[in-house]
Amino acid sequence: MDRRDNIYSRKVRKAADCLRQMILPLPGGTVLPGIRSLMKRTSAGQVTVTNALRELQEEGLIRIKPSSGIFRIRPPENNREIRLIHWQVVDPERRTGFFQILFRKLKEYADASGWRISVEYVENRLPEEIAAELANDGISRCIICSSLVPDFAARLKKHMAVCLELLPRHTWQVTATLRDAPDMTVRQMKYLFQRGYRRIGYLSQSMNDTSRYPIQVLRIKDYYRLMAENGLRVDPDWVFQYSESFDDLGEGLTRIMSAKPPPEALIAPSPSVLRRLYPWCRKHHIRIGKDLAIFCCDEGQERFDPEVTTITNNPESIAKTFWEMFQAAERGENVESRYTELFIRTGLTVPSRTPPSPREQENLP
User: What is the pLDDT of residue 299?
Assistant: First the structure.
């Protein structure tokens, strides 16, 4: 295809996108304006608009009847199916991951109520494209999970009867949402201070675009803030942001534990890190729970030896809370956004040390 063909294809695609946004909200049976009106709406020529309409007919959004006009068509609504839209590929064969547990429990709650949840993983697809797909499938209820795009829900919600967000990464709020509890690090730090720890390290995942998950930024800011408010020094080597592939995690742990002095406790973000952290400590003769306290975030169904202390918003609890929100929205009730509930599951990795003095106790967060 030469450059001119590429330019023309982009014009057709642009015209089709414009017409799609106009057509999606229309009820079935609506007669669309004539070609000349559509040419004005899209600022495109007759041939371009004609080809764009053919694309929309192939998608099942319209029917073109040469002698009668152009009609909006809509398949029978699938009233008992919910589309769960997600941005991270989750291995359905794995039983222990956070999202595996969350999705499985949501499906169980839906099944018990006569609903069906189908999961779709999207990457760079546009909301309007997904809206067209859902309309073509007769689906008018969706769950948007961990969207990477701030305005995704706003653009999709207008096409849905029910649209809720589950654990959004961004700060926008255009639908009812169930969000990560914001005070996870605050509660971790308080717990560590109360048990006598003062040299505390922090592991977190590095991100090229921190706006995609701002709560992670808030958590590490809470760490630095609370250390400063309690007059505690932070050695730069105690904090390490590892890559998504974990390739540099061993290097980071070596740097943390080679600090003079090394931290007494380490906040680690998830069980996926523990699967690498435990073997690393054994290899370097570091006794977890004795030489180094480990305080984890989140949990799966894995068991570690020694049993890990973790702060978690349990995926089973999240599924239950979110399903209650969905049912309320389906009944037409006004659904308020909520935060997940946190609790600390105590294990053997954060034993008590020398208790803080009364003066130190007064200054704890």
Answer: 67
Domain presence at residue 329: no
Cα three-residue angle 347-351-352, rounded to 5 degrees:
135
Alpha helices in 184-310 (DSSP H): 184-194, 214-229, 249-257, 271-283
* CB contact set of 245 (below 8 Å; sequence gap of 6+): none
| Cα–Cα distance, 276 to 310 (Å, whole number) | 16
Please give the Cα distance from 134 to 32 (Å, whole number).
Answer: 21
- Cβ atoms of 165 and 153 closer than 8 Å: yes
- Banded pLDDT at 124 (limits 50, 70, 90): confident
Q: What gap in Å lies between CA 156 and CA 83, rounded to an integer?
A: 12
Considering the domain architecture, whether residues 212 and 357 belong to the same structural domain is answered as yes
Structure tokens at 364: 């704890």
d(CA 2, CA 272): 47
Domain-embedded: residue 60: yes
Q: Is 190 found in the same domain as 119?
A: no
Confirm whether 246 is domain-assigned. yes
Q: Give tens-digit pLDDT for 191-225.
A: 999 999 999 999 988 766 666 667 788 889 999 99
Using CA of residue 326, residue 327, residue 330, residue 332, what is the dihedral sign?
A: negative
| pTM, rounded to two decimals | 0.69
Q: How many domains does the chain have?
A: 3
